[in-house]
């Protein structure tokens, strides 16, 4: 065999080897992708991998689509897709049975309850706006049993507007205030502070896709607005590389365990709440931040929630225009008296009544309630 023939033979062998390796790698990639899709589509994934990150939450939402109408944003019939905040309470809900016989209503602007509140102030009334998540919204209680409804009954000549929305982070609350809440010209803005809200501030997908603030040169920059509608995710999901998603979920879980995510949560939350206080002050309102013990926090103070409680206390003490206090001592006292407080899911009606009484007491003590105007 001459030299040229040997070179050609060697070239053909290399090409054949390369083709074999390429086919093998392609087959391996397909197998890994199929395996990742099987793993992520299984409901067991929720119990194996921490879901408190974008990829896990998104996959959880995709898996839940089997049981949801194609145009719904969340698993709740009273939620609607919202292009700025991701989801919001539907407008005009009337006497909807929810949570074992409880009743849910919403007004024409999507606030909890039947009462319609005009943007213009009603003379001789104190107006209080309340921001928060499902505990403020009143999941598992009827309209009249929320602490906002109790507070309105406790304060003479007052209007207490419940802007609480299930599943919100502080980022969505800030956007809500900027776009809508300030238009009501409130005297006082109450923020129901739940420690899980801090985690939500670094997500762009939670119950559904949502906006997210990022710190760029110590300045808040909002991402993911407008929020894509549900059909966008359903249409594009088949093209996503699930192997990449699986690795991203594992990486995010490890990042959470390392403490890096915790530091990002604290920095982002401080910036968001600082901006919210600035907006409240510009609206000539007084801010009141209320730390709300939930679940096992009632009678069982754990390390991370204590960090959140301390964070909120220090934040409020260092800023003008906002007062802060914790409901934890009062709830602990109620628990020691063996009073029935819901420690499993959301507050019951008695918990809401206790919270309203304590908020009223604090505002009286600090002389925060203005003379009706």
Taking all Cα atoms into account, the compactness measure Rg is 25 Å
Strand order, largest beta sheet: 6-5-7-10-11
Class per helix and strand makeup? alpha/beta
End-to-end C-alpha gap: 105 Å
String of helices and strands: HHHEEEEEHHEHEHEEHHHEHEHH
Low-confidence parts lasting 5 or more residues at pLDDT below 50?
A: none
Tell me the number of helical segments per DSSP (H or I, 4 or more residues long): 13
What is the percent of helical residues?
A: 40-55%
How much of the sequence lies in strands comes to: 5-15%
**CATH architecture level-2 label of the domain at 77-228 and 258-365:** 3-Layer(aba) Sandwich
Mean pLDDT: 86
CATH superfamily of the domain at 77-228 and 258-365: SGNH hydrolase
Net shape: elongated
Largest sheet: 5 strands, parallel
Tally the beta strands.
11
The CATH class designation of the domain at 77-228 and 258-365 is Alpha Beta
CATH topology of the domain at 77-228 and 258-365: Rossmann fold
Record the SSE blueprint.
Blueprint: H1 3-41, H2 45-48, H3 54-64, E1 79-82, E2 86-89, E3 96-98, E4 102-104, E5 126-131, H4 134-137, H5 147-154, E6 158-162, H6 170-179, E7 188-193, H7 196-200, E8 212-216, E9 219-223, H8 230-236, H9 242-258, H10 260-282, E10 286-291, H11 303-317, E11 322-326, H12 328-336, H13 349-365
Parallel strand pairs: 5-6, 5-7, 7-10, 10-11
Antiparallel strand pairs: 1-2, 3-4, 8-9
Helix pairs in contact: 1-9, 5-13, 6-10
